[in-house]
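hey
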């Protein structure tokens, strides 16, 4: 019995907790030992602490300060919330000629872009997995149990397509753009089992700057990044931050029903247009593909 208990302890979610700054102090809202297997509505303790600003029809953005263990003691959360009925999505690419690598950054977002974020994952210089640009398939689907494709149809709707279902939509009309990413953080509000216990193929201890794409039950899309918030934000490019299970909790607490990680670390980057100002959280690495949001 003791051996069995010891074995189960080794597989348990690594111990951690997350708190949010209320303006008066830190309020804990998540603990690994009590982590929910599924999320419902947004958690007021987190979502209610985001200072939202409406900056364009269908576009809001906001920030919150988080605190976790170790190097995650000070983390800034940045969220852009989008109404697909009011905005359009387009994938953009850039490659450095002769250098064999991606060259897209948020600085390449076109004038007038309302928001932009690095999209998907990449392998070497190439985007990883399924990639559709302007209705044309440029890369074949990737495989993986926690991968998912995000497709934008010609009417502007956002579709979540599991890896084993991509073949059913390939080549069919209606998909204007699509990218594939991993790991899945939430599916129908449920946290994948591989994110709830160790030993199932996902590193649950590594801490990094994070980027994620999510969607709430009402259809609104969430673009989310984290930044190290030490030294008054001067060192926000340092890739310290949350674990994968913690990022799943963040997306669930923000109200996402479905969510997937985007390439994080020094690749994570975000742009949002706030009136006449353009706010940029730049990455240190150029990537092959970016997602750009424009008004309809």
């Amino acid at each position: 019995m003791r051996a069995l208990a010891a074995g189960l302890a080794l597989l348990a979610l690594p111990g951690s907790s997350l708190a949010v700054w209320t303006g008066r102090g830190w309020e804990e809202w998540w603990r690994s030992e009590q982590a929910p297997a599924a999320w419902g509505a947004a958690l007021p303790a987190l979502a209610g602490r985001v200072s939202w600003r409406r900056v364009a029809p269908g576009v809001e953005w906001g920030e919150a300060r988080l605190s976790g263990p170790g190097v995650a003691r000070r983390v800034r959360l940045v969220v852009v919330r989008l109404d697909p009925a009011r905005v359009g999505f387009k994938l953009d690419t850039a490659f450095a000629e002769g250098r064999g690598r991606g060259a897209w950054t948020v600085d390449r977002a076109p004038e007038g872009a309302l928001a932009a974020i690095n999209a998907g994952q990449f392998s070497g210089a190439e985007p990883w997995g399924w990639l559709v640009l302007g209705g044309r398939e440029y890369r074949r689907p990737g495989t993986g149990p926690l991968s998912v494709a995000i497709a934008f149809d010609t009417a502007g709707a956002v579709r979540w397509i599991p890896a084993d279902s991509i073949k059913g939509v390939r080549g069919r009309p209606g998909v204007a753009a699509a990218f594939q990413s991993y790991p899945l953080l939430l599916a129908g509000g449920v946290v994948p089992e591989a994110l709830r216990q160790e030993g199932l193929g996902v590193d649950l201890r590594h801490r990094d700057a994070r980027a994620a794409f999510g969607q709430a039950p009402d259809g609104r899309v969430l673009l989310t990044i984290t930044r190290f918030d030490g030294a008054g934000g001067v060192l926000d490019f340092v890739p310290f931050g949350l674990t994968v299970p913690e990022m799943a909790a963040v997306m669930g607490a923000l109200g996402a029903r479905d969510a997937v990680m985007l390439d994080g670390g020094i690749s994570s980057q975000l742009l949002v247009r706030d009136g006449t100002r353009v706010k940029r959280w730049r990455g240190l690495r150029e990537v092959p593909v970016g997602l750009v949001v424009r008004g309809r």
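The radius of gyration is 19 Å. The helical segments are 2-11, 44-47, 244-253.
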